[in-house]
Specification:
Blueprint (H helix, E strand, L loop, with lengths): L23 H5 L2 E8 L7 E8 L6 H11 L20 E4 L2 E4 L10 E5 L6 E3 L2 E2 L18
Length: 146
């Protein structure tokens, strides 16, 4: 069974059932659902659903790293540090809001939509072209004057 097949709107994929192969303590606890937009430039995008054990996903970055390690090693996203909020490379959209994946907290039992930044050229999946170093999360020249 292909666990990397994106959801086509008809329902869950085998990737969302990957928890059945996870350790029993992960299956018995609370989970978090990540609906991740996947794709490459100039092709239709699809949404793939992943179920992540809550204890493995305190932050969005933690959850994505768990998915890449345990379920789907083809998931593309960018990060350089963990929970330091210094590099700005892990920016993406979480439920329609721009966040740093390393600091965006996830709540057990919730379902989250994850997508790449809409204003940056897409490389693949959640990975977009690196923003200029002068750019900030909230953007604008006023950030440089502080």
């Amino acid at each position: 069974m292909n666990t990397n097949a994106p959801e086509n709107g008809a329902g869950n994929t085998a990737a969302s059932v990957a928890m059945n192969n996870a350790p029993s303590e992960a299956r018995d606890g609370a989970t978090i659902t990540l609906r991740v937009q996947r794709g490459v430039p100039q092709q239709a995008h699809a949404v793939q659903t992943y179920t992540v054990p809550a204890e493995a996903a305190a932050s969005l970055l933690d959850g994505l790293r768990w998915v890449r390690t345990h379920v789907d090693d083809t998931l593309a996203f960018r990060y350089a540090c963990i929970n330091a909020n210094a590099c700005k490379e892990c920016m993406m959209r979480l439920d329609g809001k721009t966040v740093y994946a390393c600091t965006a907290r996830l709540e057990p039992g919730h379902d989250y939509a994850v997508a790449p930044l809409p204003n940056k050229p897409l490389v693949r999946d959640l990975m977009t072209a690196i923003a200029p170093s002068k750019e900030r999360l909230f953007g604008g020249e006023e950030d440089d004057e502080r």
